[in-house]
Amino acid sequence: MQRTDWIHYIGAVLLWAAPIVFSACQQSDVRQTEAVEDRQSTPVLDVDSVTTLISDSGVVRYRISAPRWQIYDKAEPSYWEFMQGIYLEEFDELLRIQASLRADHARYWDKEERWELTGSVHALNEKGEAFDTELLIWDQHAERVFSDSAITITRDSSVIRGIGFESNQTMTNYTILNPTGYFTVEE
């Protein structure tokens, strides 16, 4: 075979093989999905097993851990959802844990800076006092924590129970609205 014959032979093979090669490159299993019509009920972020740090002026102030975190940025009002629970720690300037908070479910309205924690809610303040309730609302903007549910506060020497309470956001200055149970009263 001469050189020109080889070129014709290779050209013929390429012409014969081209449809096979190009058909192999095409996606025969094209899948289409419906367009998202209801953006208010669709999270823009859906993350599993997350831990994040939140800082203020370059100083780490909080650590949030959650099995699942969803952000609904198009909902009115927009919010974050922690359907499988949340654990939050607050740090002092030396990164020592100052307070902690755990809940079975949490929702955070980002524009209002308001948390609603439900289920088995357990909070620990910097004094070591433990707060247990089924509902806790934390208004960061007003720097206030409150609830209208039953609450148990465990301190070193006493346990206080009641229905409803109000507090500053560090939960160090609080009032039980309808106290019950036994506790020591200093005269």
Q: What this model shows, in words?
A:
The chain is mainly beta. It has a single domain, classed as Sandwich (lipopolysaccharide transport protein A fold). Helix content is 12%, strand content 52%. It has one helix spanning 3-25, and strands at residues 45-56, 59-72, 79-82, 86-91, 97-103, 105-109, 114-124, 130-139, 144-154, 159-168, 174-180. It has a 6-stranded antiparallel barrel with strand order 2-3-6-7-5-4. A hairpin with a 2-residue loop joins strand 1 (45-56) and strand 2. It is elongated. It starts with a helix and ends in a 7-residue tail after the last strand. The mean pLDDT is 85.
Name the features.
lipopolysaccharide transport protein A fold; mainly beta; elongated; 187 residues
Short description:
Helix content is 12%, strand content 52%. The chain is mainly beta.
What is the element layout, followed by pairings?
Layout lengths: L2 H23 L19 E12 L2 E14 L6 E4 L3 E6 L5 E7 L1 E5 L4 E11 L5 E10 L4 E11 L4 E10 L5 E7 L7
Antiparallel strand pairs: 1-2, 2-3, 2-4, 3-6, 4-5, 5-7, 6-7, 7-8, 8-9, 9-10, 10-11
Total strands: 11
* Count of all domains: 1
CATH fold node name: lipopolysaccharide transport protein A fold
Q: What structural category do the secondary elements indicate?
A: mainly beta
- Strand adjacency order, main sheet: 2-3-6-7-5-4
Give the CATH level 1 class. Answer: Mainly Beta
Which runs of at least 5 residues are low in confidence (pLDDT < 50)?
none
Architecture (CATH level 2) name: Sandwich
Based on CA atoms alone, the radius of gyration comes out at 30 Å
**What is the H-and-E element order?**
HEEEEEEEEEEE
Largest sheet: 6 strands, antiparallel, barrel
N-end to C-end Cα span: 117 Å
